[in-house]
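Session log. Operator J.P. requested a structure for one protein chain; no other inputs attached. Running the standard single-chain path with C-alpha cell output.
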Amino acid sequence: MPTASSVHPLEQPHSGRLLLCASLAVFAAAMVGILLRPLGYLSVFWPANQIVLVLLLRYPRLMRPVGLAAIFASFVLADLITGTSVWLSLGFTTANLCGAACGWLFLHRQSKRDLQMEGQASALMVFFASGMASLASASIGGPISAWAFELSITQGLLMWWTGEWMNAMMLLPFLLALPSASKPAAVQERQSWALKLLPALAVIGLETTSYMVGNKVGSLAFSLPALLWCALSYRILTTAIITMLVFVTKVIVISNIVGFIPANVLDVASLRLGITMLILGPLSVAGSHAARAELLHRMRYQAHHDSLTDVLSRNGFVQASHALLKRLTHEGNSAAVLMLDLDHFKRVNDNHGHASGDRLLRDVSRVLTESLRPQDVLGRIGGEEFAVVLPHISFEDATAIAERLCHTVRNGQFQTAHNEPLLATLSIGLAYKQALRPADSLEDLLREADLALYQAKSQGRDCAVWTAPL
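Structure written below.
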C-alpha cells in the first residue's frame, strides 16, 4: 500500500485529477444505485460504498478532509438531482461514509496479497470486514431509513445491514482483485479454449436451470458447484467477476419477484444473508487456490535458485541448460559454455570474514547478471564457481563477453561487510561449439570449459582462456 509522504497528499502532483476522478466515480455509482431503487425505498443494489472503500484503500490521500468532502458532495449531489430531501441525503451520506471508513480501518493494514484476494483467508477477511462496516453503516442509516419510510428500528437496521453486507460481498472482491495481474498457471495456458470455457459454461447452464424451475428456495444455490469449479480453474479476478455477475443478476431478478420492500423485511433479510454466505464459498476456494499456487511457485523457485545469490543453483542450472542445449541441438545452432571462478576467494573469508565473502558473492552475481544477455543462463555451481551458457552466439562474441566479464569484475566497486573497499577478479574458461550435435552434452562442454579455466589460473588468473572452436 502507498504510504504518506512528508508532503500533504492532496498537494502532491495530480491530486486535483484524483479528486475529480474519484468524485465522478462515486457520483456515477450512486446514480446507478438510485436508478435501481424500488419506489419509495432503498436501492436493491448499491455499489457506491464499495467503490469509495477501494478508492480509500488505493489512494490514502483521499482520507484527508478535502478528499472526504469531495466524496461526500458526490453522494449528496446524486441524491439532490433525483429528488431526495437535503436532510435525508445528509443522513444517508453520513451512514455511507461511516461504513466505508470502518471498512478502511479493518483493511488498510492488510498485506498486498490479501487486498488482491490472493491470500488463503482473504475471502474470510473481506467477509468479516464488510460485515462490521455494514453494521457501522446500519447503525446510522438504519434509524434514518426507519424514520423516513415509517419502519420499526429493527426493520430499518435489518434491511440496511443485510443489503449493505450483500452488496459488499458481491462487489468488493471484484474491486479488490482488479489490480491483480498474475498470470494463469502454466497448465491452464496449455489448455484449449473449449476446456477453459467449461467452468463458465457450467455456471451459465446451472443458472439458466435455476430460473427455469421458478422461484424455489433451493434454486438459489444451483450454480454453486460450477462456481467452485471456476474458483479452482481461473485466477481470482475472473472468479470474482463471474461470482459478482451471477449474484447481481439473482438480486435484480428476485427483487422483481419478491419485492425488496419493508412489507417483506424478513424474507428479504433472509435472502440477502443467504446470498452473502453463498458468495463466501467460491471466493474462499479461489483465495486458497491462489495461495497454494503461490506457495508452489515459491517452492519451485527455491528448489532451482541459490538462496545466497538468487541466481540458479547447480540443479537449476543443469536443468535449464539441458533444456536449452537440447533445443539448440535440434536447431543446429551454436553455444558457448563458460566456467567462472572468483580468484583467491578464500582470502576474502580469512581476512575479512564470511559475511564479507557472502556479500562479495551476492555483488558479483548481480554484476554478472547485469552484464549478460536476457537469454543467457547463469548459475552458481559451487562455492565461488559460476557457469554460463551463451546460446545463439558467434565465437568472437563469446570471447568478447568473457573478456568483458573479467573487466567488469576487475573494475567493480565491491565492499566488505564493514563497507571497506574490496578488490575482486575472475578467471574464466570457455568452450565453444559452432553447431551442436546430439553427441555434445552439457557435461562435456563443462569439462572443456573447466580445462580452459585451469589454464587461466595457471597463467596468473584474472583472465579468460578458451579452447579452439569446433
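Operator note: The two ends are 55 Å apart (CA to CA).
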